[in-house]
Amino acid sequence: MAFRSPVRRLVSTTTTRIRGISSQATTTSNLSHSVQESISHEASLPNPDPSDDSASASLINEHSKFMLATYARPPPVFVKGEGSYLWDLENRKYLDFTAGIAVNALGHSNPGLAKVLSDQAHTLWHASNLYYNPWTGALSQLLVEKTLESGAMHDAATVFVCNSGSEANEAAIKFSRKVGKVLDPSGAKYEFVSFHNSFHGRTMGSLSATPNPKYQQPFAPMLPGFKYGTYNDIEAIDDLVTDKTCGVIIEPIQGEGGVNVASDEFLIALARRCRQVGVVLIYDEIQCGLSRTGTLWAHSHLPKEAHPDVLTTAKALGNGFPVGAIIVNNHISEKIKIGDHGTTFGGNPMACRLAHYVVSQLSDPKLQQDVLSKSKKFIEGFQSLKERYPDLITEVRGKGLILGLQLTQDPSPIVKAARERGLLVITCGTNTLRFVPPLTINDEEIKSGLNILEEAIKATR
Protein backbone atom coordinates (compact mmCIF):
# COMPACT_ATOMS: atom_id res chain seq x y z
CA MET A 1 0.00 0.00 0.00
CA ALA A 2 1.07 3.61 -0.45
CA PHE A 3 1.68 5.36 2.86
CA ARG A 4 1.28 9.09 3.35
CA SER A 5 4.43 11.17 3.34
CA PRO A 6 6.58 10.11 6.32
CA VAL A 7 7.81 13.63 6.97
CA ARG A 8 5.66 15.45 9.48
CA ARG A 9 4.95 19.14 8.94
CA LEU A 10 6.48 21.22 11.72
CA VAL A 11 3.66 23.74 11.48
CA SER A 12 0.17 22.29 11.85
CA THR A 13 -3.03 24.33 11.73
CA THR A 14 -6.30 22.74 12.75
CA THR A 15 -9.68 24.45 12.92
CA THR A 16 -11.59 23.47 16.04
CA ARG A 17 -14.49 24.61 18.17
CA ILE A 18 -13.33 22.85 21.32
CA ARG A 19 -13.38 25.11 24.36
CA GLY A 20 -9.95 26.18 25.45
CA ILE A 21 -8.34 25.95 21.98
CA SER A 22 -8.37 28.92 19.63
CA SER A 23 -10.25 28.57 16.35
CA GLN A 24 -6.91 28.37 14.55
CA ALA A 25 -4.72 26.21 16.81
CA THR A 26 -1.12 26.49 15.57
CA THR A 27 1.75 24.35 16.78
CA THR A 28 5.22 25.49 15.77
CA SER A 29 8.47 23.72 16.51
CA ASN A 30 11.09 25.75 18.36
CA LEU A 31 13.71 23.12 17.51
CA SER A 32 14.56 22.52 21.18
CA HIS A 33 16.59 19.43 22.03
CA SER A 34 13.50 17.40 22.90
CA VAL A 35 11.76 18.48 19.71
CA GLN A 36 14.82 17.55 17.64
CA GLU A 37 14.69 14.09 19.14
CA SER A 38 10.98 13.77 18.38
CA ILE A 39 11.57 14.95 14.79
CA SER A 40 14.07 12.14 14.28
CA HIS A 41 11.51 9.64 15.62
CA GLU A 42 8.58 11.10 13.72
CA ALA A 43 10.43 11.34 10.41
CA SER A 44 10.32 7.55 10.17
CA LEU A 45 6.57 7.38 10.87
CA PRO A 46 3.65 8.27 8.62
CA ASN A 47 1.31 9.00 11.56
CA PRO A 48 3.29 9.75 14.74
CA ASP A 49 1.54 10.33 18.05
CA PRO A 50 1.07 14.04 18.85
CA SER A 51 4.15 15.54 20.50
CA ASP A 52 4.33 17.21 23.89
CA ASP A 53 4.15 20.67 22.28
CA SER A 54 1.11 19.85 20.12
CA ALA A 55 -2.41 21.22 20.24
CA SER A 56 -3.55 17.80 21.41
CA ALA A 57 -1.16 17.86 24.37
CA SER A 58 -2.33 21.37 25.25
CA LEU A 59 -5.97 20.30 25.25
CA ILE A 60 -5.25 17.16 27.29
CA ASN A 61 -3.26 19.12 29.86
CA GLU A 62 -6.09 21.62 30.23
CA HIS A 63 -8.90 19.07 30.54
CA SER A 64 -7.32 16.08 32.27
CA LYS A 65 -7.14 17.80 35.65
CA PHE A 66 -10.94 17.92 35.67
CA MET A 67 -11.45 14.32 34.51
CA LEU A 68 -11.50 11.40 36.94
CA ALA A 69 -8.64 9.17 35.82
CA THR A 70 -10.25 5.77 35.17
CA TYR A 71 -8.70 5.30 31.70
CA ALA A 72 -5.11 5.34 30.42
CA ARG A 73 -5.51 7.00 27.04
CA PRO A 74 -2.95 7.43 24.24
CA PRO A 75 -2.13 10.97 23.01
CA PRO A 76 -4.45 11.45 19.96
CA VAL A 77 -7.58 13.58 20.49
CA PHE A 78 -10.29 12.54 18.04
CA VAL A 79 -12.48 15.29 16.64
CA LYS A 80 -14.06 13.80 13.52
CA GLY A 81 -15.19 10.46 12.13
CA GLU A 82 -16.52 9.27 8.80
CA GLY A 83 -17.14 5.68 7.74
CA SER A 84 -14.18 3.56 8.84
CA TYR A 85 -11.93 6.53 9.65
CA LEU A 86 -11.20 8.93 12.50
CA TRP A 87 -9.27 12.22 12.45
CA ASP A 88 -7.45 13.75 15.39
CA LEU A 89 -6.83 17.36 16.40
CA GLU A 90 -3.67 17.45 14.26
CA ASN A 91 -5.77 16.25 11.30
CA ARG A 92 -4.12 12.82 11.24
CA LYS A 93 -6.28 10.15 9.66
CA TYR A 94 -6.72 6.71 11.28
CA LEU A 95 -8.30 3.56 9.90
CA ASP A 96 -10.47 2.29 12.76
CA PHE A 97 -10.49 -1.47 13.39
CA THR A 98 -12.12 -0.89 16.82
CA ALA A 99 -15.44 0.78 15.88
CA GLY A 100 -15.65 2.28 19.36
CA ILE A 101 -15.35 -1.26 20.84
CA ALA A 102 -17.86 -2.88 18.49
CA VAL A 103 -20.25 0.08 18.73
CA ASN A 104 -20.07 1.90 15.38
CA ALA A 105 -21.29 -1.05 13.31
CA LEU A 106 -22.63 1.31 10.63
CA GLY A 107 -19.46 3.39 10.69
CA HIS A 108 -18.73 6.85 12.04
CA SER A 109 -21.12 9.75 11.34
CA ASN A 110 -23.53 7.54 9.43
CA PRO A 111 -25.57 9.91 7.21
CA GLY A 112 -28.85 8.06 7.71
CA LEU A 113 -28.49 8.15 11.48
CA ALA A 114 -27.51 11.82 11.40
CA LYS A 115 -30.71 12.61 9.52
CA VAL A 116 -32.85 10.58 11.94
CA LEU A 117 -31.18 12.21 14.94
CA SER A 118 -31.73 15.70 13.59
CA ASP A 119 -35.36 15.04 12.76
CA GLN A 120 -36.14 13.50 16.15
CA ALA A 121 -34.24 16.22 18.00
CA HIS A 122 -36.65 18.73 16.45
CA THR A 123 -39.65 16.54 17.32
CA LEU A 124 -39.41 14.87 20.75
CA TRP A 125 -36.35 13.76 22.69
CA HIS A 126 -37.70 12.73 26.10
CA ALA A 127 -41.07 12.54 27.81
CA SER A 128 -40.43 9.85 30.49
CA ASN A 129 -41.77 6.34 30.92
CA LEU A 130 -44.85 7.71 32.64
CA TYR A 131 -46.32 8.04 29.14
CA TYR A 132 -46.37 6.16 25.84
CA ASN A 133 -44.39 7.41 22.84
CA PRO A 134 -44.33 5.97 19.29
CA TRP A 135 -40.75 4.71 19.27
CA THR A 136 -40.30 2.56 22.39
CA GLY A 137 -42.98 0.19 21.18
CA ALA A 138 -41.80 0.34 17.57
CA LEU A 139 -38.26 -0.64 18.57
CA SER A 140 -39.53 -3.41 20.84
CA GLN A 141 -41.70 -4.81 18.05
CA LEU A 142 -38.87 -4.65 15.52
CA LEU A 143 -36.42 -6.41 17.85
CA VAL A 144 -38.87 -9.23 18.52
CA GLU A 145 -39.88 -9.64 14.87
CA LYS A 146 -36.34 -9.52 13.48
CA THR A 147 -35.13 -11.93 16.18
CA LEU A 148 -37.85 -14.44 15.26
CA GLU A 149 -37.17 -14.00 11.53
CA SER A 150 -33.46 -14.63 12.08
CA GLY A 151 -34.01 -18.07 13.56
CA ALA A 152 -32.71 -16.98 16.95
CA MET A 153 -34.59 -17.02 20.29
CA HIS A 154 -37.69 -18.70 18.88
CA ASP A 155 -39.94 -17.58 21.75
CA ALA A 156 -38.84 -13.91 22.00
CA ALA A 157 -41.86 -11.99 23.25
CA THR A 158 -41.26 -8.65 24.96
CA VAL A 159 -38.52 -6.03 25.38
CA PHE A 160 -37.28 -3.68 28.10
CA VAL A 161 -35.26 -0.74 26.78
CA CYS A 162 -32.49 0.77 28.91
CA ASN A 163 -29.33 2.84 28.40
CA SER A 164 -26.33 0.50 28.23
CA GLY A 165 -25.02 -3.04 28.24
CA SER A 166 -24.32 -3.01 31.96
CA GLU A 167 -27.90 -1.92 32.60
CA ALA A 168 -29.21 -4.63 30.30
CA ASN A 169 -27.28 -7.30 32.20
CA GLU A 170 -28.28 -5.79 35.53
CA ALA A 171 -31.93 -6.11 34.52
CA ALA A 172 -31.34 -9.71 33.40
CA ILE A 173 -29.85 -10.56 36.80
CA LYS A 174 -32.81 -8.93 38.58
CA PHE A 175 -35.29 -10.74 36.38
CA SER A 176 -33.58 -14.06 37.16
CA ARG A 177 -33.76 -13.40 40.89
CA LYS A 178 -37.45 -12.53 40.56
CA VAL A 179 -38.18 -15.73 38.63
CA GLY A 180 -36.27 -17.73 41.24
CA LYS A 181 -38.44 -16.30 44.02
CA VAL A 182 -41.62 -17.03 42.10
CA LEU A 183 -40.53 -20.64 41.54
CA ASP A 184 -39.31 -21.06 45.13
CA PRO A 185 -40.86 -18.55 47.55
CA SER A 186 -38.49 -19.76 50.29
CA GLY A 187 -35.74 -17.71 48.64
CA ALA A 188 -33.36 -20.68 48.29
CA LYS A 189 -33.23 -20.37 44.49
CA TYR A 190 -31.01 -17.30 44.27
CA GLU A 191 -27.56 -18.40 43.05
CA PHE A 192 -26.27 -16.99 39.79
CA VAL A 193 -23.72 -18.54 37.42
CA SER A 194 -21.31 -16.90 35.00
CA PHE A 195 -18.00 -17.99 33.47
CA HIS A 196 -14.32 -17.20 33.82
CA ASN A 197 -12.97 -14.69 31.27
CA SER A 198 -16.44 -13.22 30.83
CA PHE A 199 -17.25 -9.52 30.97
CA HIS A 200 -20.80 -8.39 31.76
CA GLY A 201 -20.39 -4.84 33.04
CA ARG A 202 -19.29 -2.66 35.95
CA THR A 203 -22.45 -2.09 38.00
CA MET A 204 -22.35 -4.14 41.19
CA GLY A 205 -24.62 -6.87 39.84
CA SER A 206 -22.98 -7.17 36.44
CA LEU A 207 -19.55 -6.81 38.05
CA SER A 208 -20.37 -9.70 40.39
CA ALA A 209 -20.95 -11.76 37.24
CA THR A 210 -17.54 -10.69 35.84
CA PRO A 211 -14.96 -12.91 37.60
CA ASN A 212 -11.89 -10.83 36.87
CA PRO A 213 -9.86 -9.92 39.99
CA LYS A 214 -8.64 -6.72 38.33
CA TYR A 215 -12.21 -5.44 38.15
CA GLN A 216 -13.66 -7.02 41.29
CA GLN A 217 -11.03 -6.65 44.02
CA PRO A 218 -11.19 -2.84 44.41
CA PHE A 219 -14.93 -3.11 45.11
CA ALA A 220 -15.17 -6.41 47.01
CA PRO A 221 -17.16 -7.97 48.46
CA MET A 222 -19.31 -8.79 45.47
CA LEU A 223 -23.03 -9.51 45.71
CA PRO A 224 -23.72 -12.86 47.40
CA GLY A 225 -24.68 -15.98 45.49
CA PHE A 226 -22.45 -15.72 42.39
CA LYS A 227 -20.62 -18.83 41.16
CA TYR A 228 -18.14 -19.11 38.30
CA GLY A 229 -17.63 -21.95 35.86
CA THR A 230 -15.12 -22.84 33.16
CA TYR A 231 -16.11 -21.86 29.63
CA ASN A 232 -16.73 -24.88 27.35
CA ASP A 233 -16.39 -27.39 30.21
CA ILE A 234 -19.40 -29.64 29.60
CA GLU A 235 -18.51 -32.12 32.34
CA ALA A 236 -18.74 -29.46 35.06
CA ILE A 237 -22.21 -28.14 34.15
CA ASP A 238 -24.30 -30.39 36.41
CA ASP A 239 -22.34 -29.49 39.53
CA LEU A 240 -22.27 -25.81 38.59
CA VAL A 241 -25.97 -25.32 37.79
CA THR A 242 -28.17 -26.72 40.56
CA ASP A 243 -31.65 -26.42 42.05
CA LYS A 244 -30.36 -23.35 43.93
CA THR A 245 -29.45 -21.57 40.70
CA CYS A 246 -31.86 -18.88 39.46
CA GLY A 247 -29.89 -17.66 36.43
CA VAL A 248 -26.96 -18.36 34.12
CA ILE A 249 -25.37 -15.69 31.93
CA ILE A 250 -22.95 -16.42 29.11
CA GLU A 251 -21.46 -14.67 26.09
CA PRO A 252 -21.70 -16.95 23.01
CA ILE A 253 -18.42 -15.27 22.06
CA GLN A 254 -16.40 -13.70 24.87
CA GLY A 255 -15.17 -10.31 23.71
CA GLU A 256 -13.21 -8.70 26.53
CA GLY A 257 -12.05 -12.14 27.71
CA GLY A 258 -10.10 -12.88 24.54
CA VAL A 259 -12.53 -13.55 21.65
CA ASN A 260 -13.30 -17.06 22.91
CA VAL A 261 -16.07 -18.92 21.09
CA ALA A 262 -18.45 -21.20 23.00
CA SER A 263 -18.86 -24.58 21.34
CA ASP A 264 -22.33 -25.54 20.14
CA GLU A 265 -22.13 -28.68 22.26
CA PHE A 266 -21.42 -26.64 25.39
CA LEU A 267 -24.29 -24.21 24.81
CA ILE A 268 -26.72 -27.06 24.08
CA ALA A 269 -25.69 -28.92 27.23
CA LEU A 270 -25.87 -25.75 29.31
CA ALA A 271 -29.36 -24.92 28.03
CA ARG A 272 -30.54 -28.48 28.67
CA ARG A 273 -29.34 -28.32 32.26
CA CYS A 274 -30.99 -24.91 32.80
CA ARG A 275 -34.35 -26.26 31.63
CA GLN A 276 -33.90 -29.37 33.77
CA VAL A 277 -33.62 -27.40 37.03
CA GLY A 278 -35.71 -24.33 36.16
CA VAL A 279 -32.97 -21.77 35.55
CA VAL A 280 -33.18 -18.57 33.49
CA LEU A 281 -30.65 -18.77 30.62
CA ILE A 282 -29.23 -15.41 29.53
CA TYR A 283 -27.18 -14.83 26.40
CA ASP A 284 -25.12 -11.65 26.60
CA GLU A 285 -24.76 -10.62 22.95
CA ILE A 286 -23.86 -7.04 23.72
CA GLN A 287 -20.60 -7.29 21.76
CA CYS A 288 -21.10 -10.30 19.49
CA GLY A 289 -24.73 -9.65 18.45
CA LEU A 290 -26.49 -7.48 15.85
CA SER A 291 -24.94 -9.16 12.80
CA ARG A 292 -21.30 -8.98 13.93
CA THR A 293 -21.02 -12.74 13.31
CA GLY A 294 -22.89 -12.56 9.98
CA THR A 295 -26.25 -13.47 11.52
CA LEU A 296 -28.45 -11.14 13.55
CA TRP A 297 -27.54 -12.97 16.76
CA ALA A 298 -24.50 -15.13 17.40
CA HIS A 299 -26.70 -18.04 18.52
CA SER A 300 -28.98 -17.98 15.45
CA HIS A 301 -27.53 -21.25 14.14
CA LEU A 302 -28.27 -23.20 17.31
CA PRO A 303 -31.27 -25.54 17.68
CA LYS A 304 -34.27 -24.19 19.60
CA GLU A 305 -33.37 -26.20 22.68
CA ALA A 306 -30.25 -24.05 23.08
CA HIS A 307 -31.99 -20.68 22.72
CA PRO A 308 -31.98 -18.30 25.71
CA ASP A 309 -34.82 -17.08 27.91
CA VAL A 310 -33.23 -13.63 27.97
CA LEU A 311 -31.08 -11.87 25.36
CA THR A 312 -29.18 -8.68 26.22
CA THR A 313 -27.94 -6.17 23.66
CA ALA A 314 -26.39 -2.69 23.54
CA LYS A 315 -23.19 -1.37 21.88
CA ALA A 316 -24.10 -1.47 18.15
CA LEU A 317 -27.79 -0.96 18.98
CA GLY A 318 -27.35 2.82 19.00
CA ASN A 319 -24.21 3.08 16.83
CA GLY A 320 -22.79 5.41 19.50
CA PHE A 321 -25.98 6.76 21.07
CA PRO A 322 -26.51 5.26 24.56
CA VAL A 323 -29.17 2.53 24.41
CA GLY A 324 -29.51 -1.08 25.52
CA ALA A 325 -32.28 -3.65 25.48
CA ILE A 326 -33.36 -6.91 27.10
CA ILE A 327 -35.44 -9.35 25.03
CA VAL A 328 -37.33 -11.92 27.10
CA ASN A 329 -39.71 -14.81 26.49
CA ASN A 330 -43.14 -15.18 28.08
CA HIS A 331 -41.75 -17.45 30.82
CA ILE A 332 -39.94 -14.35 32.12
CA SER A 333 -42.39 -11.70 30.99
CA GLU A 334 -45.35 -13.12 32.91
CA LYS A 335 -43.40 -12.98 36.18
CA ILE A 336 -42.30 -9.34 35.94
CA LYS A 337 -44.90 -6.96 37.35
CA ILE A 338 -45.43 -3.20 37.26
CA GLY A 339 -42.86 -1.55 39.53
CA ASP A 340 -40.36 -4.43 39.43
CA HIS A 341 -37.92 -2.42 37.32
CA GLY A 342 -37.57 1.03 35.78
CA THR A 343 -35.38 3.62 34.12
CA THR A 344 -35.47 7.39 33.74
CA PHE A 345 -33.86 7.71 30.31
CA GLY A 346 -34.32 4.21 28.91
CA GLY A 347 -36.82 4.00 26.09
CA ASN A 348 -36.75 7.71 25.28
CA PRO A 349 -37.96 8.55 21.75
CA MET A 350 -34.54 9.68 20.52
CA ALA A 351 -32.66 6.53 21.54
CA CYS A 352 -35.44 4.24 20.35
CA ARG A 353 -35.84 5.87 16.96
CA LEU A 354 -32.10 5.72 16.36
CA ALA A 355 -31.97 2.08 17.48
CA HIS A 356 -34.94 1.29 15.24
CA TYR A 357 -32.99 2.63 12.27
CA VAL A 358 -29.86 0.68 13.28
CA VAL A 359 -31.72 -2.62 13.67
CA SER A 360 -33.42 -2.06 10.30
CA GLN A 361 -30.02 -1.62 8.66
CA LEU A 362 -28.12 -4.36 10.50
CA SER A 363 -30.82 -6.98 9.88
CA ASP A 364 -30.36 -6.66 6.11
CA PRO A 365 -29.37 -10.10 4.69
CA LYS A 366 -27.04 -8.42 2.17
CA LEU A 367 -25.09 -6.71 4.96
CA GLN A 368 -24.89 -10.00 6.87
CA GLN A 369 -23.58 -11.84 3.81
CA ASP A 370 -21.00 -9.10 3.30
CA VAL A 371 -19.86 -9.53 6.91
CA LEU A 372 -19.07 -13.19 6.20
CA SER A 373 -17.21 -12.24 3.02
CA LYS A 374 -15.18 -9.59 4.84
CA SER A 375 -14.49 -12.00 7.68
CA LYS A 376 -12.95 -14.42 5.22
CA LYS A 377 -10.56 -11.71 3.98
CA PHE A 378 -9.53 -10.85 7.54
CA ILE A 379 -8.98 -14.50 8.46
CA GLU A 380 -6.96 -15.18 5.31
CA GLY A 381 -4.79 -12.17 6.14
CA PHE A 382 -4.35 -13.27 9.74
CA GLN A 383 -3.46 -16.83 8.74
CA SER A 384 -0.86 -15.43 6.38
CA LEU A 385 0.61 -13.35 9.21
CA LYS A 386 0.55 -16.42 11.46
CA GLU A 387 2.58 -18.36 8.89
CA ARG A 388 5.13 -15.55 8.60
CA TYR A 389 5.38 -14.93 12.36
CA PRO A 390 4.75 -18.33 14.01
CA ASP A 391 6.76 -17.37 17.08
CA LEU A 392 4.44 -14.37 17.64
CA ILE A 393 0.96 -15.46 16.51
CA THR A 394 -0.31 -18.78 17.85
CA GLU A 395 -4.03 -18.72 17.05
CA VAL A 396 -6.74 -16.92 15.07
CA ARG A 397 -10.11 -16.92 16.85
CA GLY A 398 -13.62 -15.59 16.40
CA LYS A 399 -16.44 -15.38 13.88
CA GLY A 400 -17.60 -12.77 11.42
CA LEU A 401 -16.08 -9.43 12.35
CA ILE A 402 -15.29 -10.19 15.98
CA LEU A 403 -11.83 -11.70 15.64
CA GLY A 404 -8.75 -12.17 17.79
CA LEU A 405 -5.07 -12.85 17.25
CA GLN A 406 -3.46 -14.71 20.15
CA LEU A 407 0.12 -13.53 20.65
CA THR A 408 3.02 -14.90 22.67
CA GLN A 409 3.88 -11.46 24.05
CA ASP A 410 2.36 -8.19 25.22
CA PRO A 411 0.59 -6.64 22.21
CA SER A 412 0.90 -3.05 23.49
CA PRO A 413 3.98 -2.18 21.35
CA ILE A 414 2.15 -3.42 18.24
CA VAL A 415 -0.93 -1.36 19.15
CA LYS A 416 1.24 1.77 19.44
CA ALA A 417 3.19 1.03 16.27
CA ALA A 418 -0.04 0.46 14.36
CA ARG A 419 -1.54 3.70 15.66
CA GLU A 420 1.55 5.64 14.60
CA ARG A 421 1.09 4.20 11.13
CA GLY A 422 -2.58 5.14 10.95
CA LEU A 423 -4.39 2.02 12.25
CA LEU A 424 -6.39 1.67 15.48
CA VAL A 425 -6.52 -1.78 17.10
CA ILE A 426 -7.31 -2.84 20.67
CA THR A 427 -6.48 -5.70 22.99
CA CYS A 428 -8.44 -8.16 25.12
CA GLY A 429 -7.87 -11.23 27.28
CA THR A 430 -4.22 -12.14 27.77
CA ASN A 431 -1.90 -11.01 24.94
CA THR A 432 -4.74 -10.92 22.40
CA LEU A 433 -5.28 -8.37 19.64
CA ARG A 434 -9.01 -7.78 19.06
CA PHE A 435 -10.55 -6.73 15.75
CA VAL A 436 -14.12 -5.38 15.72
CA PRO A 437 -14.24 -2.95 12.75
CA PRO A 438 -17.39 -1.30 11.38
CA LEU A 439 -19.52 -3.87 9.56
CA THR A 440 -19.56 -1.42 6.64
CA ILE A 441 -15.78 -1.55 6.17
CA ASN A 442 -14.81 -2.21 2.55
CA ASP A 443 -12.31 -4.62 1.02
CA GLU A 444 -9.72 -1.96 0.24
CA GLU A 445 -9.79 -0.75 3.84
CA ILE A 446 -9.33 -4.30 5.09
CA LYS A 447 -6.33 -4.77 2.79
CA SER A 448 -4.86 -1.44 3.85
CA GLY A 449 -5.30 -2.21 7.53
CA LEU A 450 -3.71 -5.64 7.24
CA ASN A 451 -0.72 -4.07 5.48
CA ILE A 452 -0.32 -1.53 8.28
CA LEU A 453 -0.66 -4.27 10.88
CA GLU A 454 2.22 -6.18 9.32
CA GLU A 455 4.31 -3.01 9.20
CA ALA A 456 3.61 -2.54 12.92
CA ILE A 457 4.63 -6.12 13.67
CA LYS A 458 7.86 -5.67 11.72
CA ALA A 459 8.61 -2.43 13.57
CA THR A 460 8.38 -4.11 16.99
CA ARG A 461 10.58 -7.13 16.26
Task: Describe what is shown at a glance.
This protein is of the alpha/beta class and 461 residues long.
Which features would summarize this protein structure in a list?
461 residues, alpha/beta, Aspartate Aminotransferase, domain 1, Aspartate Aminotransferase, domain 2, 2 domains, 36% helix, globular, disordered N terminus
Distance between the terminal alpha carbons, to the nearest Å? 21 Å
As for the CATH topology of the largest domain, it is Aspartate Aminotransferase, domain 2
Total helix count? 15
> Which whole number gives the mean pLDDT?
92
Number of strands: 19
CATH architecture of the largest domain: 3-Layer(aba) Sandwich
Give the class-level CATH name of the largest domain: Alpha Beta
Largest sheet: 7 strands, mixed
Q: Write the CATH homologous superfamily of the largest domain.
A: Type I PLP-dependent aspartate aminotransferase-like (Major domain)
Portion in beta strands? 15-25%
Q: Per the principal axes of the C-alpha atoms, what is the gross shape?
A: globular
SSE class: alpha/beta
Helix fraction bin:
25-40%
How do the strands line up in the largest sheet? 6-14-13-12-9-7-8
Gyration radius from CA atoms, angstroms: 23 Å
Low-confidence runs of at least 5 consecutive residues: 1-32
Supply the number of structural domains: 2
